Amino acid sequence: MGNAELMCANCDQVLDPGDLYCRTCGLPTVRAYALRAQTVGSAPDLQELERALDIAPEPEVMERVTASTTEHGDTEPLERSSFLAQPAPRLRLALSPLSTVLLIALVGAIVVFFLLLTLG
Fold first, then answer.
1. Burial of 13 (0-12, 13-18, 19+ CB in 10 A)
2. Are 118 and 110 in contact (CB under 8 A)?
3. CA end-to-end distance (rounded Å), the chain
4. pTM higher than 0.90, yes or no?
5. For residues 103 and 97, is the Cβ–Cβ distance under 8 A?
6. Which of 5, 15, 19, 112 is most buried, judging by how many CB atoms fall within 10 Å of its CB?
């Protein structure tokens, strides 16, 4: 091949043959573009996917997990009565919408009265 080096098209930084992106400017290399185009163009391997989904869990691991939880007894059974939804105590300080509007109007009238009194 000779003395040819891979260079970034954007910043002229020397690239390693396995680089997918320039280390200086982050521009994708020609290799990254080729890999992306190859994965888009190829169909997914359905047999490999089925093999991956058909893997059963190791029974030894499941036995260890169930044995360790029953031996130690670190957890206590939950009492359902302690988790039942109970309404929060309601405060009766809430005003009706009409009383809220009347209260705002009263405060506004008092403010206007005092402004007129001081200015006038």
1. middle
2. no
3. 97
4. no
5. no
6. 15
